[in-house]
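can u do me a favor
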């Protein structure tokens, strides 16, 4: 039997996520920064995707349950700091998430 995991930023129309739900056993969601849209936008060089990620993450939790989701909260040198990571973690916990992976991005210049 296969266990299927997916790593995603959830920044797509939810119908695409919904199509995968029956096949995915565990979701790893990289939030970049959950509580601060400015940090998210600066790192991803996008605008408007942060609310989509937040909304999709909440809807996914409601459908599959928080136990099937690991939310990844990176420290990204030059974009956020330990306080930002900790605040994102607190906000995620307040929203019912318990599987939270805090880690440090390794940025290399190739």
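np, heres the sequence
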């Amino acid at each position: 039997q296969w266990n299927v995991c997916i790593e995603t930023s959830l920044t797509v129309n939810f119908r695409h996520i919904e199509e995968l739900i029956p096949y995915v056993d565990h979701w790893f969601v990289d939030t970049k920064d959950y509580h601060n849209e400015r940090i998210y936008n600066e790192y991803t060089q996008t605008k408007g995707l942060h609310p989509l990620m937040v909304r999709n993450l909440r809807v996914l939790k409601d459908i599959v349950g928080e136990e099937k989701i690991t939310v990844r909260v990176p420290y990204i040198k030059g974009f956020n700091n330990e306080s930002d990571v900790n605040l994102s973690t607190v906000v995620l916990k307040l929203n019912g998430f318990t599987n939270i992976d805090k880690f440090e991005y390794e940025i290399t210049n190739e």
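The first strand starts at residue 5 and ends at 8. hope that helps!!
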